[in-house]
Amino acid sequence: MEFALAYLRPSVVQLLRAMALIVLSPNLRREPVFLEAGLTDPLLFRDALLTLHDVVVSDFDYRLTRAQLLRLLDPLITVASDGVFFEAFSQDESCYARVTLHPELLTDLEAFQSGTTNVDFSPALVEALESIRPRTDTRLKVEREGFSVAADDKQVKVKKVKVPDSWLRGFLNVQAAMTLPLKVLEMSRTDLRNLLAFLQSHKERQGPRALVLRLRPNKPAEAVFEPWNLTVTLTQSVYHGDEEREIRLWGRRRLFLLRRLLPKIQKVFVGLIDSGYPSFWLCDLGFASFTLGISGWTVRPFASSALHLLKPRKQVSPELLTQVAELLRYRQKVTTQEICQRLSLDKGTALTALGFLCERGKAMFDLEANAYRWREVTEMPIEELRVDADPQREVDALRLVQQGRVKITDERLSGGHRLIAGTVRGDTGTYAVTLTLDAEGGIVDGECECTWFRFNHLRGGPCKHLLALRLVAQGE
Fold this sequence. Notes:
By secondary structure, the chain is α+β, with helices and mostly antiparallel strands. It folds into four domains: 2-163, Roll (DNA Polymerase III, Chain A, domain 2); 178-308, DNA Polymerase III, Chain A, domain 2 (Roll); 311-374, Orthogonal Bundle (Arc Repressor Mutant, subunit A); 391-473, Roll (Nuclear Transport Factor 2, Chain: A). It has helices at residues 42-56, 66-69, 123-129, 165-178, 189-201, 318-331, 336-343, 347-359, 391-402, 451-456, 464-473, and strands spanning 2-7, 12-15, 19-24, 34-39, 76-80, 83-89, 95-101, 106-113, 115-118, 137-142, 157-162, 183-188, 211-215, 221-225, 230-234, 238-240, 245-249, 267-272, 279-284, 288-294, 333-334, 363-366, 371-374, 406-414, 417-425, 430-437, 443-448. The chain is globular.
């Protein structure tokens, strides 16, 4: 997909006599978005934006060619009444970053226009941000003067960025992973520093290379580093869970992306799903926050996760989807409960509609507020932007159901979940399939005898046989 970005001028940092003015140039091909306000902590803003840039240019998949890496899309900025958000995605498609500026960081707000756009984020801007020093009166400005200039004006510089479909899929799939049930480890800055110090002083020469987190209720968590199997006790970290778990994370050296923020971090909320799944590191910076999403495997970045298929997939009409979109756009931020109440929907239907909006780049999930926000990745109409990770999987599942190849052999309730067993006659054999659904129809667990599931499990999303069994169980 090719993005055409139009800027009147580059983003700059203007060092005036007694003030620094950070001027971000917006994409003129989007709806006008602007902001002008002072910054109570300029160094916090500087370090957060520079860390965002570190994520954008990071490459932990050394198999990529130079040509594949030349696809850097300028960050998105979303201006809302309760904060400002910067989002970016790494060039190797394995890391997602979001900077949230809380209202406490913004002072003397002169003007703002809500919305989402790209901002020019050139190497020159990165170098200029480094020049910001403490005790300098600093203001942030997303300028609006350029919107009076015609798009074809000779002054406007058009920047075309061609990113692969997998890059955009990965960026959108992050939202699906964030909405899965997360086990939360509240980690102190000291414990995070100890983890990074260990990785800095130890260089593995052979596998395995996992970071194993042992989570125990009411006891300090432990981090085990492979291949040495050395244990670091996280003495100041708290696990918010009621059952003991051991979760293996790969891509641990991506945590070095947080080094610049260490002096600013007050605590880190680590959102974990299970071994081999993405993890989310929400850093509390006081007047701001920084969220780092890390894919579960280097060879399985966000684009190939298809975790959105685990969520409820109920029938949603285009009219209902439009209603949900309009409500979200009007209120800017809503919870699932608010959607259910205002539109008289059951939770499964609401989650399906919100999931579709995230998949199509019209909404994002705010992990910090546990709510959905209106945010358009592109100006493309909602019906034209659909970049499913594996659309054929759902098509094949529907075909299996329509051909009568799916049979339920057992079904029962346990702890609020539906446990379903059945058989699915595929193209090369008949497979025994078991499925656990939550009250909304989301897939909590599952097993299938097919080859695809044997290699991927649910880390790559459910296979077509699991999807087919869910369709029959839901009567769709």
